[in-house]
Amino acid sequence: MKIxxxxxxxxxxxxxxxxxxxxxxxxxxGRPSSGRMQRFLRERKNDLLTLPDRISLSTExxxxxxxxxxxxxxxxxxxxxxxxxxxxxxxKRKMFCLCMKGIEIGSGKRLSEIAxxxxxxxxPVAVWLGPGHVQEFYAGIPNCMxxxxxxxxxxxxxxxxxxxxxxRFYYGTDLIGSEVGAAAKNVIxxxxxxxxxxxxxxxxxxxxxxxxREVARLIHAMGGSELSAYxxxxxxxxxxxxxxxxxxxxxxxxxxxxGESFSELAEGYYTVQxxxxxxxxxxxxxxxxxxxxxxxxxxxxxxxTIDGLFDRSLKKEF
Length: 318
Known about the structure:
- The chain is an alpha/beta fold.
- It contains 13 helices and eight strands.
- Helix 3 packs parallel to helix 4 (111-118), helix 7 packs antiparallel against helix 8 and helix 7 packs across helix 11.
- The longest helix has 23 residues, at 175-197.
């Protein structure tokens, strides 16, 4: 398969390396202004991996013209701007696979919804979600992920093409649940980091139990299946997000409590704003998301907020 990967950050570069390892013809696109892309052009590497010489590198967005499949891994809140740029190319008959997690602030739209606003009807959209960290994949440690789409043929085509010994893909069956669950997982990750910072890591069990149920209610209210929250998109991603030292969202929450800076992207910081929009729109209680929002945007005291969050009657657990 001829593939262009848009996004030269840690996930975009890992996807490029992985798809090349499967024998696909891969081009990595990054903006000319990107320091990461400039380093790839000079050295063909970043701090985590090295790209083989057979992988093409481009700073021209028009390189997507030659691709059968376009895989996108960029900042979720900047995704609409990218889609506006791609719309000007009038692309047709290409599969788009979104390997990112988030909900747009303001509109509350899922990323596949945004993509479909700008793409021709001949360009189907899929999402690639689930657990795993770049450091572990590049070290040869396998994991399972999920691909979902409204079109069954697209799921089959991508799963057949992208599966290997390093990543085993499962078929998603609920696009709404897959996207909402994956995005909300990052908010739970920040909450887990706050617990770590407060030396309350023992509360991660209740956090995971209640977090999954909270997200299941939201997915149901939005028209998806509650069971999706218990799959790879959400609960199945907790090990990588709630516990791992590589989790940006967990690290962000921990360092916030400790008063330390954290320079990496933590998508949950933005997603929690969108979660508050969805909470109000669908009239669903999201106590964990609300607590994280209060700490991040209303500067609420983390210890007091966490104490209030877990000071609930057992009969109100779910």
